[in-house]
Amino acid sequence: MSEQQNASVVGSKSFTAVAINCAAKAGEWIKTKLGNYASLDIKYSSHDLVTEVDKGSEKLIRSLVLTHFPTHSFLGEEGVEPGPEASVQALADVREAEYLWIVDPIDGTTNFVHGFPFFCVSIALAYKGEVIVGVVYDPMKDELFVAEKGKGAYVHGKRMQVSGEETLRGSLVATGFPADHHYALPMNLKGVAAIAPQVRNLRVAGSAALHMAYVAAGRLSGFWEIGLNSWDLAAGALLIAESGGVVTDTSGEPYHLGVRNVVASNGKLQDELIGALAKAGAIG
Ligand code: 2AM
Ligand code: CA
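That is the input. Now the predicted structure with calcium ion docked in place:
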């Protein structure tokens, strides 16, 4: 079914227009709630937080998406039970859907809770398993990163291009620490110990989706992280691909929705980054 033939589209808005509208609306609302929310829940462990704002943001996005596209499927972080097994199962349940919206209503919830201004809304649309629209919105900087498959990626309406560093030595690389302290944390720490001495510097700012957007924009040379979910990565993966970069799993296989251990870069650093992680036993 082509976008034009979709008779149930309210006001016939394009997929990308709806994604942008959802991200902007949710982002603006989240911003008003900074330092001003009532309840904080512990999801999986004391490191895995969720607020009513995560839930409200997801509800807003879900109802807007389904108003425009009632036949589409929807996978959002807050609709899934905590823990890696439930996340893998939730993706498996909808992965074959023709149109699948993959949404992280706040990526960087820990930052949001602490008032550290580095979080975003991440919205992707996959068609038969392939991401065709990716939007990441940072409400604190009012930055909207948008990509359409085959049509490039943009921030502030300007085409994005990954950075040009040829080697790790001159590069700025990011990673992260997801909530799983049993498996993912030791693996990411091993990676940090191996990579930090080889790069210009390392950043761990707490939002995988925003880190990915920064790789697309050329602000970071690369990013890797073990133990992520589809909603952390789907939009950012298209942003990077459409900005001339490369996204794979930690074995170097091309990105797909099931990737949980990710390596992303300007492309030139990809092999060196994967090689260094592999040598350190840090690929998960
Ligand atoms: P979140 O804020 O949406 O939870 C930090 O390194 C990154 O890990 C963030 O993008 C964060 O997303 C993500 N993250 C946190 N807890 C996670 C979990 N239990 N599983 C997967 N990703 C997680
Ligand atoms: Ca989230």
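The pocket of adenosine-2'-monophosphate (ligand 1) is lined by residues 44, 48, 77, 104, 107-110, 176-180, 206-208, 225, 227-229, 232 (CB under 6 Å).
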